[in-house]
User: Fold these one by one.
Assistant:
Number 1:
Amino acid sequence: MHMPQEQYTHHRSTMPSSGGPQVYKVGIYGWRKRCLYFFVLLLMILILVNLAMTIWILKVMNFTIDGMGNLRITEKGLKLEGDSEFLQPLYAKEIQSRPGNALYFKSARNVTVNILNDQTKVLTQLITGPKAVEAYGQRFEVKTVSGKLLFSADNNEVVVGAERLRVLGAEGTVFPKSIETPNVRADPFKELRLESPTRSLVMEAPKGVEINAEAGNMEATCRTELRLESKDGEIKLDAAKIQLPRLPHGSYTPTGTRQKVFELCVCANGRLFLSQAGTGSTCQINTSVCL
């Protein structure tokens, strides 16, 4: 038996119910709905602002597929173009400039380069400051491109490996202690002068000291005393002419014709003097010079 839809609906609605009719509403209504719409709108605004800021940062920092700003990523590593500033430590295996350009390190105070071992202990340190350049290490060396040693310094000695050491200072070179060298010579057509203004000048060698002036004179000048001493050997004056122009003269004058011939006399203390020659030796007569 078929019943019309109106009657069936009326039949369901007129069915008895113990609790009365119940109505179920699906969805969000009232102030909750308005708050939800507000938060959704606020979230969309934040998303748009965040997207705009991200696009602006990408544009300002010049982000590209190859890198950002002056930083480029290449097959050989990172490439920086222009001036770069690092506020934190930089760790790199190698830092080099672009081909044909110089590499500059700029600092307001100093630039320090440290070489560390496995225990982070400083082995070598180079400090370039506004007043001085300081290097700390066990040995310091300067070499040519071919590897020839030009200069080296350590705790034991300082070595100059150049062909010639030239000092251009007006006061010359000052050695507070001794100097050891196989040869001391002046530049061509220049004079060599060894002088001690306030103290003595000592030259020592286990096998002898040779002073040679091939194209000029040699002078030894002092204020008080010049001593030539040979403990085990002899002192040889080998020359075609030897002159002692300022030797004192004895007071003895023999009778008769005055001669211009003198004999060289030696006192017991080693002093030399001239005595006018006679038929015999006159040195014993002029002993007043030895007093």
Number 2:
Amino acid sequence: MRLASRALCGAAGAAWRDSFPLGGRDVARWFPGHMAKGLRKMQSSLKLVDCIIEVHDARIPLSGRNPLFQETLGLKPHVLVLNKMDLADLKEQQKIIQHLEGKGLKNVVFTNCVRDENIKQVIPMVRGLVESSYRYHRGEVCERPLMFLLDTPGVLAPRIASVEMGLKLALCGTVLDHLVGEETLADYLLYTLNRHQLFGYVQHYGLDGACDDIASVLKQVAVRLGKTQKVKVLTGTGDVNVLQPNYAAAARDFLRTFRSGLLGPVMLDRDVLRGAPLADP
């Protein structure tokens, strides 16, 4: 189903949408059934560890974090690793840290695991936190090896707080695209890029200009990538062959290009940092 056209293509100075239509979407179904099992396993494993390393996407440092950690940590040391810092716009990094400190998160590390950037800070931080905690001097603690890592799969919170938070999670690849809808997700990405004045997609795809109409953008992307097919259209004078853009394929490429960093770094939580509450479902 095509998304409604807004006919707002044109120069980068155009009046972009100031909100994204969120109503009518069932966020509850974005929580896959297998995650419930993983969440239970994670909860049962908490009693076995002395320090928790929470890994979250640096593009959404504030939204989408699992409240399970805040509820069950107790006195356990806790390190928040914000990975993929190379894909995040961190001009307001200090504000992010202050916001997290206000939530009780004192140990935050920004990393890029692909290039090992800042990764070496994690183990010394964990060791220092464990050694200063009351659990470190238990009779069974062994130093060979010094540290065991108990890895768990990433899981969402059972209830995503809002539709917009769900869209942010999906843009970062946490929620499967087909659960949200690839064209809907591409539209939210376009809305976000334009609102943030990030027009790298225009140059990347060689478009005529920045645009706020996802149908128009996807049509141009499909044509540029050769993702079209000939279809017969019945007219008053007979059948006519026309090229039909593959909107779904164009949406997938748009999302893939964003996730690989080719459209530039972005901070999806800029609205939260500036005090705007996430929209309710």
Number 3:
Amino acid sequence: MKLPSCKWLFYGFYMCMLGSFILGLKAAAGQMLSARPSACFVFGDSLVDVGNNNYIVTLATANHPPYGIDYPLGPTGRFSNGRIVPDLLAEKIGIAHAPPYLAPTTKGPAILQGVNFASAGAGILDSTGYEYIGRIPMNQQLQYITNTRAQIVELVGENQTEAIFANALFIVNMGSNDYVNNYLLTGSTTSIKYNPQQFQDLLLSTYAQQLTTLYNLGGRKFMVCGVGPLGCIPSQIVQNSLNQNGQCVEFINAYVQGFNAALRPMLQQLTATLPGATFTYANSYDLGMSYINNPGTYGFATVDDACCGLGPYKALIPCFEGVSYCSDRRDHMFWDPYHPTEASNIFSANAFYSGGPEVIYPVNVQELLA
């Protein structure tokens, strides 16, 4: 029997090693790909709405000038002069801005990198925002993502859909309207039926069920935003007739602080009890207060007046077409009586993406997605 030459033995060994090296590279690439978030799904209110309210009958719309004056596509339904936090986080992640669920173009491959279900006026409770007539409450947004999930299954199959949802970033921003457009409204029956503690408990028990529904649909990586300092937004300052000096309305902030103080441990409990899930708490309240208390640090010259609106604090009449607006949006914290400027959103998105535990806990978005 003739033995193979040393040359061929070496060649076989070389090819074997080369093959192992290539397989190793492919495995590493696969791990990197799986670690990279595949999509971003967004739920919430006008702070994160990108245009769903354009497609319903509602008084809460932002698809007209001067909204979007600094956004590349102009007025889209975003309640700001430019980009909002989900847009900015998507850019950092390297995926497209999630389109509004109700847009007729949000179908087919367009949904594979995420969908935005948020709606101005919406809340945790179905009754929240009733004064705007039309809005898409959180429970309806959950039905919409159930529909989207079924569509993704049709496109790529169940296994790949599970992978998309498990790797995706889920942004949830709810609770503000449950106070300003429900509990605090003049004549609200909710404030008669519930004291502040009972109302807070109702919100959080309902919210926990809703977040669990997202988990059951396949979500694993959640950034849940706390409620910002609502007592400091121009609309609430001007509505407090006793407040003549632009100070925050403390009793409103007290409601918010109570809600946030209970939300954080609730998210920790969900993380502990739902296998494989991480619910990280974005501290919108303290971040907003840092802008207000240290405006110069962020380049803000004005933190009580809105940029667009009329009347005291430019908050008595909201922003609409034909209303004057400030020329330098960069030095304003608030764009209109309720919503931040793009400049504020940039600071917030940066903090949520790579900030420390004082602004996002237990991990920031970058760590959450790693």
Number 4:
Amino acid sequence: MLRAFSQYQRSSLSLWRRSRNEPYRIFSSGSFCTDTTTNTTDEFQSSKLQIFDRHLKRKQRDRAAWLMRPKDCFVDTVAENLLDRLEDCKKAFPTALCLGGSLEAIRRLLRGRGAIEKLIMMDTSYDMVKFCKEDAEKDVHNENIETSFIVGDEEFLPIKESSLDLVISCLGLHWTNDLPGAMIQISVEAGWPVFSSYPRELRIACTVAQMEREGGISPRISPLAQVRDAGNLLTRAGFTLPGVDVDEYVVKYPSAMELIEHLRAMGETNALLQRNAILKRETALATAAIYDSMFAAEDGTIPATFQVIYMTGWREHSSQQKAKRRGSATVSFQDIQQQFGSES
């Protein structure tokens, strides 16, 4: 319940709303914080556990808004597979929130799925929100959806309690410092969060290159979530009926440099606080050479394997099926075993 959280007001958040026949307007908004001991003057860097530089990630998202590829095949595929899960539900979700990550792809590919009437799109990057807002004005396919745009932090959702029916995050939550806290806030609603990992080939090539050129390694790859960790996180955050599944996508690039440019265009470059701010030129060239020598295909392309973990959870409701009380069974497994054993 969000009543357990302290309310954390930030006047710098702005909300653009657009009804079917109304222009965009600006509203102030508040947010909720899961940590009462943080410094409230720091807008995007306020959880106790500091893994990522949220200020840097916001700048990287600003840059990605300008470098973003139109209709990126990889991003569109992940977004499509995420939205396909809405078609498996008979329930309608009138009000939905989309958090960070691939906002533009989610909005563009929604196409009426989930029976969404009001869509709120949120990102820490002002430029990304502006880009999605301008793109939405040109789209005629989702013109019947009332669309709002908000600049805010996933760790401090500026959303009123019990005001949402659905929360979606596509390739966004894996840059969150206080991930359990963010998930607890999301668990008030039905959530469909997604995590992604760096290509495993790039991790190997970076490690080998740094060992050869610098005699050691520095943090350049984000901590990776395991499937069992994702399931435990859903349960810890208060989700019911949790579901976790994994997809792997292999994307081929002409060279390692094109892979890096693609990661930069998605806003997926290194944002670790303990990172080495300087990447030596010889280390970068060695990484590209090692990548090519270890993983290049016969056609000269290099593969990059992305792992995406899809997580689905629901807020608790009286209509959901529940496990029977322990000890309430009327038939024992021993009786069943004896029955089927005798028949065989």
